[in-house]
């Protein structure tokens, strides 16, 4: 089978598996990588950039070496790798569960669910804060959990899929600007920024094009992206969150409380504060963008030589 056809088919089959089965609740390979990376950190940690660079090189390099061997499995390997790294179905399910709990007025249950979506401190958030946090997480993780791995898989096959997931996982683990990880996590955060530069913008473009599906307009989504994305401290999260805010006609950003401290995020969009129904609309947008991303990625893989 032609390599491009095999890769495209593997991406489509793996995406279908994610839609049907979602992430395995136990023995997930990504969780296994996280455990191994945490153990490695015990050996490599130092409050210095060079230690973080070594940690990133060893952790991601090991995954790439494994992926290069696994890629010999052709279509089956690509299918399984795609299913392993995607998290779109689980993301949408968590978003809907959060909306259900907020609609039921069960704030405690909603707070318990938030850590599955993002790293913010749920104990200080009310219903509106939980809705905003979940919506912003849906926007960002649509890119991180689906669009980015699919695009990397399209251009680099199994190594692209697994390597991207390793980079993104390390950023989630140590890419914080707190006292412990400010220097050690620098390499992980910057590598993740580079890996997501193109995927975030593809996500933004898909959000602009698909805005009418959630009652928005491409013009509003594009305007929010162009006016507000650059205000965000992340070169990538700003793009996907601003375009989502514009598509939904809501306002995101503001004081954001993490476990390591608070950040004052810039305002994205010019609409009202998000409500529970907006969170449901964000989930629908996420699922539409995911479908668009797998179509684009499969087409891109077919162009490989």
UniProtKB/TrEMBL annotation:
Q: Which GO terms describe its cellular component?
A: plasma membrane
Record flagged with keyword Nucleotide-binding:
no
The record, for InterPro entries, names: Cobalamin_biosynth_CobD/CbiB
Q: What is its main location?
A: membrane
- Span-the-membrane segments of this chain are none
UniProt-annotated location(s): Cell membrane
Pathway as given in its UniProt record: Cofactor biosynthesis; adenosylcobalamin biosynthesis
Give the molecular function GO annotations: ABC-type vitamin B12 transporter activity; threonine-phosphate decarboxylase activity
Keywords of the record: Cell membrane, Cobalamin biosynthesis, Membrane, Transmembrane, Transmembrane helix
**Membrane topology qualifier:** Multi-pass membrane protein
**GO BP annotations listed:** cobalamin biosynthetic process
Tell me if Ion transport is a UniProt keyword of this record. no
Summary of the function given for this chain in its UniProt record: Converts cobyric acid to cobinamide by the addition of aminopropanol on the F carboxylic group.
Q: What does the similarity note say?
A: Belongs to the CobD/CbiB family.
This chain belongs to the protein called Cobalamin biosynthesis protein CobD
Q: Highest lineage ranks of the organism?
A: Bacteria, Bacillati, Actinomycetota, Actinomycetes, Mycobacteriales
């Amino acid at each position: 089978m032609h390599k491009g056809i095999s890769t495209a088919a593997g991406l489509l089959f793996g995406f279908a598996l994610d839609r049907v089965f979602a992430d395995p609740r136990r023995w997930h390979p990504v969780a296994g990588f996280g455990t191994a990376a945490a153990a490695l950190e015990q050996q490599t940690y130092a409050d210095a950039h060079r230690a973080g660079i070594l940690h990133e090189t060893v952790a991601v390099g090991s995954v790439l070496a494994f992926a290069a061997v696994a890629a010999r499995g052709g279509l089956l390997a690509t299918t399984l790798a795609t299913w392993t790294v995607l998290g779109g179905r689980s993301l949408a399910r968590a978003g809907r569960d959060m909306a259900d709990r907020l609609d039921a007025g069960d704030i405690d249950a909603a707070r318990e669910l938030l850590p599955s979506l993002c790293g913010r401190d749920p104990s200080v958030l009310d219903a509106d804060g939980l809705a905003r946090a979940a919506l912003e997480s849906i926007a960002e993780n649509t890119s991180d959990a689906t669009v980015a791995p699919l695009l990397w898989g399209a251009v680099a096959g199994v190594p692209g899929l697994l390597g991207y997931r390793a980079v993104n996982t390390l950023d989630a683990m140590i890419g914080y600007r707190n006292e412990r990880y400010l220097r050690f996590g620098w390499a992980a955060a910057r590598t993740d920024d580079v890996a997501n530069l193109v995927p975030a913008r593809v996500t933004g473009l898909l959000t602009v094009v698909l805005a009418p599906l959630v009652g928005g307009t491409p013009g509003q989504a594009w305007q929010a992206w162009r006016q507000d994305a650059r205000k965000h401290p992340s070169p990538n999260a700003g793009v996907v969150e601003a375009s989502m805010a514009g598509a939904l006609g809501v306002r995101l950003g503001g004081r954001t409380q993490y476990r390591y401290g608070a950040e004052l995020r810039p305002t994205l969009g010019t609409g009202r504060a998000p409500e529970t129904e907006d969170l449901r609309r964000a989930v629908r947008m996420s699922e539409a963008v995911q479908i668009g991303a797998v179509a684009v990625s499969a087409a891109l893989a077919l162009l490989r030589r």
